[in-house]
Write a structure and sequence with these properties.
Length: 271
């Protein structure tokens, strides 16, 4: 049995979780978990078995309370990965759920598996690598029209795209409780209106494969650089009308041209 330390430089790529052993000893092998790691920025999506991958609804506006509550049972977060001493820290700049304990753990290679053990909570995760190769690049973003932060990360043929809510989530209760207690459907929809989408790049097309928002599955992101300071992506409005969302770039890493799709974005940019 091999057991070797992990360097930060060897982590860029795509990782799929095969096992979680929680603090209570319960084992989970059914949740679909994918972690897309760029040079430092990352995106992580965790969806339980039976999660509605595609609801048939064209937008959040078509979802009722039962649908919205079902969406709260997934986890999604993104940010920056750093190593301090022997401990890796996943800073969550964007999080689908309310703020939680710091995400930190120790990593080691064991028989071809990346083993993570929790620093603040006693858990064990096993991660299986997917061979992707490069390029590796990422952007931190800001939508000036809504104030929402965003992130785009690429690892080979995979990408992760994140767009925050327009308003922060209160940190005093689980997201499911907040949605159940929301004052009306509009407020409940706003609470879950956080997009973290993972997808694949093929023939210049960036196609979303899984998303916190079911109606985004199968859509094309079509990221397009606007000089060195802006990024445009294809999106849909609350009524499912297509438009172009425009971001300002607030930070970047890796080759910028790796984050540009030759396919055109949709018309109707938000002003």
């Amino acid at each position: 049995m091999s057991d070797s330390p992990v360097s930060l430089s060897r982590l860029p790529g795509v990782w799929h979780r095969s096992l979680l052993v929680g603090a209570d000893g319960v084992r989970d092998t059914t949740t679909t978990v994918t972690w897309v790691q760029g040079p430092a920025r990352y995106a992580d999506l965790r969806q339980p078995a039976g999660h509605p991958a595609r609801s048939g609804a064209a937008s959040l506006a078509a979802l009722g309370f039962p649908d919205l509550i079902a969406l709260t049972r997934q986890e999604a977060f993104a940010g920056r990965l750093r190593k301090r001493g022997d401990v890796f820290h996943w800073a969550r700049l964007l999080d689908f759920g309310p703020v939680s304990l710091p995400d930190a753990g120790r990593l080691r290679h064991e028989d071809g598996v990346l083993v993570e053990t929790g620093e603040h909570v006693p858990y064990v995760e096993h991660w299986q690598p997917e061979r992707t190769g490069g390029p590796f690049a990422a952007l931190e973003l800001l939508d000036p029209a809504t104030g929402s932060a965003g992130l785009l990360v690429r690892a080979g043929s995979w990408f992760g795209y994140v767009r925050d809510r327009a308003e922060p989530v209160p940190a005093d209760a689980p997201l499911e409780d907040l949605v159940r207690g929301a004052d009306g459907l509009e407020r409940a929809r706003g609470l879950v209106d956080f997009e973290l989408s993972l997808g694949r790049i093929a023939d210049g097309r960036w196609t979303i494969a899984r998303s916190t928002l079911p109606h985004r599955t199968g859509a094309r992101l079509a990221p397009a650089l606007d000089g060195c300071s802006g990024l445009r992506v294809s999106d849909t409005d609350h009524d499912a009308s297509p438009y172009t969302r425009t971001f300002e770039i607030t930070a970047a890493e890796g080759p910028l041209d790796a984050l540009h799709s030759p396919a055109p974005v949709s018309e109707g940019a938000r002003r």
